[in-house]
Each structure stands twice: as C-alpha cells, then as structure tokens.
Amino acid sequence: MKGNIPRSAACFPISVVQEITSLSARQIRYYEEQGLIDPERNQGNQRLFSMNDIDRCQEIKELIDQGLNIAGIKAVLSARNKNSG
DNA sequence: GTTCTCACA
DNA sequence: TGTGAGAA
C-alpha cells in the first residue's frame, strides 16, 4: 500500500479549493469556464478538484494578479503542457 | 453544501 | 475579471 495519495486524486469539493486557493467558488468556476482548469465530476455533477487542479488555480490567480488575462493564462497552461518543467 | 443562469460594473 | 441574486 502506498499510504500517500496521488496528486491526481480528485477528492476535494469547491469549498476546499476556496480555502487553499483563497478564491471564491465563483472564481474557481469561472476559471473552469475559461478552460483554465478541468476538474472531475461526481454523479451529482459536483466538481472534484485534485492536488493538481488546486495547485493550478493558485497559478492562475498569480498570473491574473500579474496583469495577465484569460488569453495570457491559457498561453501559460499551454507552455506548461509542452514540457514538465 | 454544490451547481447553473442572467445582468452588471 | 469578478460578483449578486434566485432556483433546484
């Protein structure tokens, strides 16, 4: 048994993301609307965020705080997607 | 507690 | 880009 959970284990509701990302449910949902994040969904249509999605939301917030817009963030996501580091 | 829609600044 | 109010 690995004891530790994978970073892709989506088991956090939007309420949890609010705390760790210090964002609002509206913003979190807003980012997903822009395609900045892609959380899983429960049978109840509830969003389930993983350590990866949560960490990403923080990155998104940072970019926006830097003066970037959805277009700019999407560019960053793409840049991070083309390489691991 | 969570999600969706419409309208506004 | 981010938020308020109403309904399920």
TrEMBL record:
Keywords: DNA-binding, Repressor, Transcription, Transcription regulation
Keyword Mitochondrion annotated: no
Keyword Signal: no
Family annotation (InterPro entries): DNA-bd_dom_put_sf (IPR009061), MerR-type_HTH_dom (IPR000551), MerR_fam (IPR047057)
SUPFAM superfamilies in alphabetical order: Putative DNA-binding domain (SSF46955)
GO MF annotation, one: DNA binding
Pfam families in alphabetical order: MerR_1 (PF13411)
Boundaries of every HTH merR-type domain copy: 11-79
Protein name (Swiss-Prot/TrEMBL): HTH merR-type domain-containing protein
Origin species: Marinococcus halophilus
